[in-house]
Amino acid sequence: MAKLKVGILISGRGSNMAALIRAAQSADYPAEIACVVSNREDAGGLEVARKVGIPTAVISHRRYPDREAFDRDVSTALEKHGVGLVALAGFLRIQSAWFPEHWAGRQINIHPSLLPAFPGLHVQRQALDAGVRLSGCTVHFVTPALDSGPIIAQAAVPVLAGDTEETLSARILRQEHRLYPLVVRWFAEDRIAIGDGRVTVRGIAPDATLLFSPEP
Ligand code: GRF
Q: Which of 61, 81, 111, 122 is catalytic?
């Protein structure tokens, strides 16, 4: 069967992108990374993708009069590569309503908190300030409202005494790198269904959509 073509949008170092690329290097992985698009020329992830021969494009938002014009060009670049799933991986642009509507049910994001807690930026700071004992990451469908589309899966990690934004962030990131490839696999296997704003993953026990890691 033909593999699902995934387009990844990045703005920075691209470690989640790299985790997806690594997963897709296995012959039995049902998705391939068809292209990587960055809105920033200096995004570190671009070099990582280029090195393994994945087509990349830089589309600078600065050259566009408004968000939608930028979004439409990004979309055209993805469609040129036959993309069936858009995976945001540290893509730091707020989209116009047009983009998530155009890619509805075909665009996912990874966010470093247990949503709906702590959307937006400075996520680990928010978690530490709130004094939560548990945090983690969430993969969700993208809708026009920021960080609030239907949740597909989460991974939880403890928040430890003495944690800083850096230590908590690193602990969560390790789980992001497990969770994102897993969700893309489920999507490619056509297991993911949305009904009434809630997601079910066919053939996967509901418990398996929560990873828990006690590792410090
Ligand atoms: C990750 O923490 C991700 O959850 C958030 O942005 C960060 C991107 O990191 N959306 P990387 O570029 O994938 O390393």
A: 111
